Amino acid sequence: MPLRPKASDVPAIRGALKFYRISAYVTGTLLLLLVLEMLFKYSPIHREIELGGPNGVIALVPDGTVRAVNLSTGILIAHGWLYVVYLFCDFRLWSLMRWPFGRFIQIALGGVVPFLSFIVEHFITRRVHHELAELEQPATTTVTTPEATNR
């Protein structure tokens, strides 16, 4: 029989879900920016994204000629660190929901496959809401006794 979340953990689960959803969108967006940056850098055009240099606020400059802030490197570093935050959110939600380990791995893959974090977030949010509704349902149903219906 699979484990179910504890009723006492419902407030913590709601908070963990909100934190997970935010981190999923941030990580997914940064991953898409990272893919775009990689296309610029490793395609035949060999460009990097420069922020605030002599070529304007944001400019594509030849690879290795960045004079100001290298936004390409910034995106890479930001995605890496925020993926760690995403994994923490994944672990917190997974442990509170008491899911099997395979689901943890599925959610973790959302941060490394482009567009997948948005899809995984949608289905995980739906699943959490469904499981919480099942968990809270027995507590909200009232038991009617024959004496109560005869009044």
From TrEMBL:
One of its GO terms (cellular component) is plasma membrane. It comes from the Bacteria. NCBIfam families: integ_memb_HG (TIGR03954). It is a multi-pass membrane protein. InterPro entries: DUF3817_TM (IPR023845). The keyword Transmembrane applies. It comes from Lacisediminihabitans profunda. The lineage of its organism: Bacteria, Bacillati, Actinomycetota, Actinomycetes, Micrococcales. The keyword Transmembrane applies. Keywords: Cell membrane, Membrane, Transmembrane, Transmembrane helix. Residues 17-126 form the DUF3817 domain. PANTHER family: MEMBRANE PROTEIN, MEMBRANE PROTEIN-RELATED. This is DUF3817 domain-containing protein. The chain crosses the membrane at residues 20-40, 68-88, 100-120.
